[in-house]
Amino acid sequence: MVIDVHTHIVPEHFPAMGGRVAGDAWPYMDHIAPGEANVVISGRNFRTVVDRCWSVPRRLAEMPGEGVDQQVLSPMPELLAYALSPTDCLELGRHLNETIARMISESPDKFFGLGAVPLQDPDLAAKELSRIKSMGLQGVEVLSNVNGENLGDSKYRGFFKEVERLSLAVFVHSQHPTFENRFVGPAMLENVIGFPIESGLAAASVITGGLLQTCPDLRICFSHGGGVFGQLLPRMEHVWNERPPMREGLPEAPSVYAKKLYYDDVFFETRTLRYLLDMVGVSQVMVGSDYPFFMRHMTPAKEFEELGLSPEDAEAIAFGNCLRFLGVS
Fold first, then answer.
1. Residue (of 30, 46, 34) closest to 81 by Cα position
2. 269 CB-contact burial (10 Å; exposed 0-12 / middle 13-18 / buried 19+)
3. I need a labelling partner for 291 at 20 to 30 A (CA). Which of 88, 225, 238, 267 fits?
4. How far does Cα 87 stand from its chain's mean position?
């Protein structure tokens, strides 16, 4: 069995904008052809999507080609919409959560779900977690920064404490890099260069900010293998060993905390994935893809073969670690 922890949905429709504070920042679907729509946000086409984003039958039909048996559904990251007012973001998140719950109900043996919360208002987001759990979702997806603020910031500590109390999972997806003025070159560099840096910064912040000291049982996963975090970790470890100020802030070595985090395997090659496995251990890595926006560059079975994994390690990455991350094992 193979579970893909990193797949996204877009609803076929959104509620009407009405008199919401969001105005045209509220998304709507401009259906331009059967099974095809533009996701329009703030008067522009954010992305053209097809019905694999919302159609359960199409997703089920495409799973065998992807080499997976089950998917974890989460919203297209842009739809988490932390720039909206908390109230509008809450309403949008509830629509996303209801969409995911409905998709799961159509094929409950094939899907798990991660919902959306208005994390720009940590208290409101924390209150929404019980509702998400009552819907049968296993956790939440959050962005790598909240309007420029790190997840490790103490203002989000209460939210993560409630996540831990309810035994929910957190999937961190890169979005909106805070250093866009540094990109030089063609379009898409926000995604190509910015996202892996964002993921690395977010992972580092939950360690250096003390989140894992406060919430030792928190199950939190970083998309795209944690991005550049694997390269940051040896330097963090060296400075922790050599400089007292680093040890004063972290009672345990950074590597200890890094081995408590989870990571997907979306690196697009096995050499980088092998480095991550050596760094944090087989027990913390899960299959991902970014479906339906990226299709896998190789099937999980082929990836496991190239890595030379034992049957036990292949099973752990294929599904065992994911079930533990989701809290259903």
1. 46
2. exposed
3. 88
4. 22
Q: In whole angstroms, what is the distance from residue 42 CA to residue 165 CA?
A: 37
Which residues fall within 8 angstroms of residue 92, CB to CB, at 6 or more apart?
14, 26, 27, 79, 81, 84, 116
Strand 149-150 and strand 169-173: the pairing is unpaired
R_g of the chain computed on alpha carbons:
19
Closest by alpha carbon to 267, among 308, 291, 292, 296? 296
Kindly report the average pLDDT of the chain as a whole number: 95
Fold of the domain built from segment(s) 3-8+55-326? TIM Barrel (3.20.20)
* Separation of alpha carbons 204 and 229, rounded Å: 7
* pLDDT tens digit sequence for 264-274: 999 988 999 99
Q: Do the Cβ atoms of 313 and 326 come closer than 8 Å?
A: no
What is residue 93's predicted lDDT score, i.e. its pLDDT?
A: 98
Structure tokens of 123?
A: 């208290």
Q: What is the mean pLDDT of residues 132-137?
A: 98
Three-state helix/strand/coil letters over the chain: CCEEEEEEECCCCCCCCCCCCCHHHCCEEEEEECCEEEEEECCEEEEEEEHHHCCHHHHHHHHHHHCCCEEEEEECHHHHCCCCCHHHHHHHHHHHHHHHHHHHHHCCCCEEEEECCCCCCHHHHHHHHHHHHHCCCCEEEEECEECCEECCCHHHHHHHHHHHHCCCEEEEECCCCCCHHHCCCCCCHHHHHHHHHHHHHHHHHHHHCCHHHHCCCCEEEECHHHCCHHHHHHHHHHHHHHCHHHHHHCCCCHHHHHCCCEEECCCCCHHHHHHHHHHHCHHHEECCCCECCCCCCCCHHHHHHHHCCCHHHHHHHHHHHHHHHHCCC
Q: What is the pLDDT of residue 249?
A: 87
